[in-house]
Amino acid sequence: MTVSMNEGRMTSGARQVARMNIAGGGQVVVRDGYLFVGHMSPPEGTSIIDVRDPASPKVVVKIAPPDHYSHTHKVRVAGDLMITNVERHRRHFYRKGEMLERGMADLAKKLGRAPSDAELAEAVGVAASDLADLREGHARGYGDGGFRVWNIADPASPKLLSYVRTGGIGVHRFDMDENYAYISTEMDGFIGNILVIYDLADPTNPREVSRWWIPGQNLAAGEKPDWKGQRHRLHHALRVGDKMWAACWYAGGYVIDISDITKPKTLGSYNYHPPFPEPTHTLMPLPEPIAGRQIALMVDEEHDHVPGQPHGFIWIMDARDPANLKPISTFQVSEMDSPYARAGGRFGAHQFQEKQIGSLIYAAWFAGGLRVIDIADPEKPKEIAFYVPEPFPGHKAPQSNDVDVDERGLVYLLDRDHGLEIIEMI
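Below the sequence we write its predicted structure tokens.
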């Protein structure tokens, strides 16, 4: 494999077509010559980009979040519909507000006096300078989480059809088709995200048809989780045929029967936590067999990496029996394979493109950039190309967050912090 370095880029088998100076994002989707990008932080929300001339991409419209306390970092399209999520911005920080009252009481009991702000901040895990913001956010609360449905018959002029409010911190990643939305969201009475399926027959008024959750999440029904906090929760579920393939963070992957969409039923699950330390981000079956075998892909998100533990990586699974998934092999990237592996930020895996392209996997690998993996032999995944972008000024390392591929074979690699690369294979 020939490797080249050019202006900070490290590539093999791939080259840059264009580079966009846009705000960082959480998801990129390409369809019919347009890119749909969900941005990480307000005031940026959703961008629609004309890439019919991929060497000269143009932003045709920007949609702001509904308020500056929310972000809309995920987006999907189906037919003339687009859905964008609404989730509490800086959710992990503001979640610590729930610890304030208990932290005050515990410290007062321990110290025999009211704790100082510095002591309280240390107890809840924030900087003392951020304590006022945390208190304000906790007092303010949050009730705007959910999703918005748009008509994109004209991608340059999206029209809002509905805004569905869900619960808790709102909606994270999700799936959709022209008939249903498969939403990962917090809901009142539950701990952590669950699956809520909405009928889109009338997109101006999406109608909830069913819910699915991991046993232990339904606190309102008296269930008691045997895990800490939100560790077991739905990240998102993908529909293939009459099944949902659900990635459930530290609970691993689940396969759900929705042949009766009003009554989702768990078929089976596969969990490898522990010993593997990174949470399950995506589980997806391949519609077409590889080497005569039914394959599913599973990717872990590099989240809170601990030195000495494995980085996030991709699992290749035997999916002949969806109720009994089994690992065939894994694909991992060495820190030696990126000049930015230890420059700052995350290094390991995050996501792959959610469509089958022969036996190829296109994966976003944070500081490892784009990795293109051939699984023609599922037992021996082989990297055939890679593209590690140069970070934009002010950033120490790329943080490749999401990837999609169009019908021309062009690859769209979105950075979590800043920028988007359009890449072609050579």
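The two ends are 12 Å apart (CA to CA).
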